[in-house]
Amino acid sequence: MFNRRKAEEWEVVGKARSYWEEFSLYHRQEKSEREPDLVTWRRPPPGWVKVNVDAAVLKGEGTGMGMIIRDSEGVFLRAAVRRERKCWPPEIAEIKAVEFGLKHLEMSGHRQAVVETDCQQVVHALRSKSQTRLEAGPLISEMQATAQRLGSIRWDFVKRNGNEPAHTMAHTRCNWEEEECWDTRPPIVILNSLEKEARAS
Fold it and tell me: Count of CB atoms within 10 A of residue 62's CB?
């Protein structure tokens, strides 16, 4: 009697473990199919450009925002950096970087773009059609409206390793409350990372 009860208990445990493993495998596959997490920079579709953005909260100083635009061949088109004396919360800073990128996208005249950031929370909010709970909710809505006005905009997440040039731009020094922009020729500080990403893409 005792042995049979033990066997039944082990059978229940075994089934539960099997169900959990199946669920975990399905969940990982579903997540992978739904939203692959890019580790390296990838070229946008033909005829599109990619705008990579990033923000750097500089404690006690302010916030840096960087952006870079490349075409479907990986060719550099534009880069820019801006520094604000406001130390925004990280999510606000990342949205401000998206706003900064969209501004330069509009100035460049392109209307089909992938906007990429390494802040997954912000990407989810920008993709969502429902109201976000983020503190940056009003800014999210504003960016969605701007994107709709500009044309075909796609929001993508990339891990930090795939966003190195924009990350470097966000930490590049410039005058406070001003911005610097580079057209056709990239700044020296991102040359190595641009070449590395071009080879990997």
Answer: 17
Return the domain boundaries, the chain.
1-34, 49-200
Q: Are 58 and 87 in contact (CB under 8 A)?
A: yes
Fold of 49-200: Nucleotidyltransferase; domain 5 (3.30.420)
* pLDDT for position 110: 96
How much is the pLDDT for 18?
45
7 pLDDT higher than 80: no
Rounded to the nearest integer, the mean pLDDT of the chain is: 84
Integer-rounded Cα Rg, in Å, for the chain is: 22
83: nearest Cα among 97, 102, 69 = 97
Please report the beta strands in the chain, taking only residues with DSSP state E, as ranges in sequence order.
49-58, 62-71, 76-84, 112-117, 152-157, 179-183
Q: Mean pLDDT across the stretch 54-64?
A: 92
Q: Say how far apart CA 68 and CA 182 lie, in whole Å.
A: 9
Angle between helices 137-150 and 120-127 (to 10 degrees): 60
Q: Is the dihedral of CA 182, 43, 98, 83 positive or negative?
A: negative
Q: Dihedral, CA atoms, 92, 95, 101, 106, nearest 10 degrees?
A: -120
